[in-house]
Each structure stands twice: as structure tokens, then as C-alpha cells.
Amino acid sequence: MAYTHIVLFGTLLITGVVMTTVAEKLDTRGLNCPLPILKTRKAINIIDSGEILEVTASDPGSVKDMASFCEQTGNRLVSSNEVDSSYVFLIEKA
User: Fold this and answer.
1) What is the mean pLDDT of the segment spanning 76-81?
2) Domain harbouring 81, CATH code
3) pLDDT surpassing 60 at residue 6
4) Among 17, 28, 64, 93, who pairs with 36 as Cys (CB 3.0-4.6 Å)?
5) Active site residue ranges
6) Total number of domains constituting the chain
7) Which residues contact 68 (CB under 8 A, 6 or more apart)?
8) Banded model confidence at residue 14, pLDDT cuts 50, 70, 90
9) In what order do the strands lie in the sheet with 52-57?
10) Domain range holding 69?
């Protein structure tokens, strides 16, 4: 299968899927509310504005929690996906 690769400002676009460079990864699997949010807040403070934090969580409540966290803090929830019984969030720091 052929793929079309387009490089645009450091973002790789492969057949309609945007691949984003992640500055930091945070694994909160096994933790329940409020620990994933508290650890996310701490991790987001380490990266620079415009950089991406990838958070992996196992708590189903984290889906709503991450959306609310981003809305309240002004950070952008780039994506929220369920992958292999975990939830993966990409958050762009404001």
C-alpha cells in the first residue's frame, strides 16, 4: 500500500493522519482520580508552550477529567483515544 508523505512545519501527514511530535510522556495507568490530573498538571508545567504532552491513563473517568482540565487551564486537548484498554491523550501546552 502506498502512502503519501507531506512534511509541513514539523508535522508528518500520512494519508490524512497527523503524527505529532511528543515532548514528554506520562503514564498514569493504575491511578484513579484525582492522581492522573495532578500528575498531568505537574508534567505540563515542565514543557514549553506549544509542546505536546502524551498522557496514558486506565481510569475511564479520565476522559471527562482531561477535557475539563484542558478547558480550565487553557491548554488544548489535541486528541483523546482509547487504545488497548487505555486512554491516550495529547495535550498542547498553552
Assistant:
1) 93
2) 3.30.110.40
3) no
4) 28
5) 33
6) 1
7) none
8) very low
9) 24-27, 52-57, 86-92, 76-83
10) 21-92
